[in-house]
Design goal:
By secondary structure, the protein is of the alpha/beta class. It is 42% helix and 15% strand.
């Protein structure tokens, strides 16, 4: 087969979706298929408003032009970035007479409406109609969990499969030396509009009022970071710390020094996206604090994990603080070599699933 993989960012770019594309391309090539990864050629940089619209429109044009020049193909496999990519991908698939597959990383315009980024109206109905056109043209449609499957299924003519993203294999750096006395709960990665942070800061306020040794750390950036820092200042937090993204080689060692890892999601986005940081966190044998929907696929998935998981709805700051205080001092997680082995096995299973799906459907 000849397969085109489409996403805003492709290898050697570093965003998680670029790594997913690279892993899938590697597996398809190893099976003897011809693969080309097509992106916008940009490096990752956060953008909002008019800059985001211009960036995405430019990416659609760049990806479309590259696909038109790429010659014959049997499959076009599209992720979700830039916004509306499945629509462009379906038009290209019609022109190329190729099968279309879409691995949905999020659901638009529903996500933007849920977060208040846009108001529901004529424009969003137009976008929803275009996405409906894209979904109905997919030979293979894949969601990240059952909630997203139910959200997408009403648009397509075929059943929706489910496959959560596997984490990128972390680089194995040395464990950092630390002499800290306190215990640390860590939010690592993007802090965007879809992520809950108020409950974390309020729980830290409770912990500080009780004179515990817990410290709250945010490492990364995101559109909601400035608002979160302003709230932390208003609450008078003394043990809340902020840093930028951790370099790739230092990420796993940094996470493994945490006593608790944090994942959050605003409940209104349930079924519209999936907190990708959980895919790595589940392998580290470190307690996970979840603040988000208490029902649904993600919460059920966390309850099935073998390690300690505390699940809290937004606003349950005191309950979260109580849970942290009750946690015994955790041992360090698995050795990094074992973590890498487990992640490689998950990646192999995921890429093999894609290979079987694509090759089981006859091509022209």
């Amino acid at each position: 087969m000849r397969v085109l993989l489409l996403n805003q960012f492709v290898p050697p770019a570093q965003p998680p979706t670029a790594k997913l594309v690279g892993d899938l391309a590697e597996a398809l090539r190893a099976a003897g298929h011809e693969v080309r990864c097509i992106g916008s050629g940009r490096t990752y940089a956060p953008a909002r408003g008019a800059r985001r619209i211009l960036r995405d429109l430019t990416a659609h044009c760049q990806i479309g032009w590259a696909v038109m020049k790429a010659g014959r193909c049997d499959w076009i496999v599209a992720l979700s970035d830039p916004t509306g990519l499945p629509v462009t991908a379906r038009v290209l698939a019609i022109i190329k007479r190729a099968h279309l597959a879409h691995w949905a990383m999020d659901v638009y315009p529903q996500t933007a409406i849920a977060l208040g980024a846009v108001k529901e109206g004529f424009l969003t109905r137009m976008i929803a109609g275009a996405m409906h056109f894209a979904y109905r043209g997919c030979k293979l449609l894949v969601a990240l969990d059952r909630d997203m499957k139910e959200e997408i299924a009403v648009h397509g003519r075929r059943p929706v499969a489910v496959l959560a993203p596997w984490p990128p294999e972390p680089l194995e750096g040395p464990l950092p030396q630390t002499t800290r006395k306190g215990r640390r709960w860590v939010y690592s990665g993007n802090l965007g509009r879809a992520h809950e942070y108020e409950t974390l800061l309020q729980a830290q306020q409770v912990l500080e009022a009780r004179e515990t040794d817990w410290e709250l750390w945010f490492q990364g950036t995101g559109s909601a970071r400035a608002e979160a820092q302003a709230l932390a200042a208003r609450l008078g937090l003394k043990n809340c710390h902020w840093s930028g993204y951790v370099p790739e080689r230092e990420l796993l060692p940094a996470l493994m020094t945490a006593d608790v890892l944090i994942a959050t999601q605003r409940p209104e986005t349930r079924g519209l996206l999936w907190p990708s940081k959980l895919s790595l966190m589940r392998h580290l044998e470190i307690p996970i604090a979840w603040v988000g929907p208490m029902e649904g696929a993600v919460a059920d998935w966390l309850r099935r994990q073998t390690g300690p998981c505390g699940l809290f709805a937004p606003g349950q700051a005191t309950a979260l603080a109580d849970w942290l205080e009750r946690l015994p001092v955790s041992r360090q997680g698995e050795q990094m070599s074992a973590i890498g082995k487990n992640i490689r096995a998950e990646r192999e299973a995921g890429t093999q699933w894609w290979l079987e799906q694509l090759t089981s459907r006859p091509v022209q």
